[in-house]
Amino acid sequence: MTDAKDERRPAGELEASVMAALWAAGAPQTPGQVQLTLGADLARTTVTTILTRLHDKGTVERRRQGRGYAYFPLQDAHGLTARRMHSELNRDSDRETVLARFVAQLSPDDERILRDLLESDDDR
User: Fold this and answer.
1) Which residues have a Cβ under 8 Å from the Cβ of 56 and sit 6 or more positions away?
2) How confident is the model over 56-67, as pLDDT tens digits?
């Protein structure tokens, strides 16, 4: 029988929870502070590992605080989503096909928003 504490959460879910805690805090947070925000069922070492991975990915920055670090996000949630979209686009060598298929799958509302954004960018 497995204890609820022993069940593993997907890394992406943990990263999203940690990022949400950092955004909500509005100030650099230590792993211990993030752990308190997320709940006691998550070990501080696990939080530290997630924060270190996010730092290695360039998603968060850190500064020395005492013997450890305090972490803060480099982008808001929208910026992070845009960065992920760019990363996915960069994984394929045929950007034109990827973009064409992406646009073909947009809803009419999203297509209008994208068209408006592209047109307003041309006005600059």
Assistant:
1) none
2) 999 999 999 999
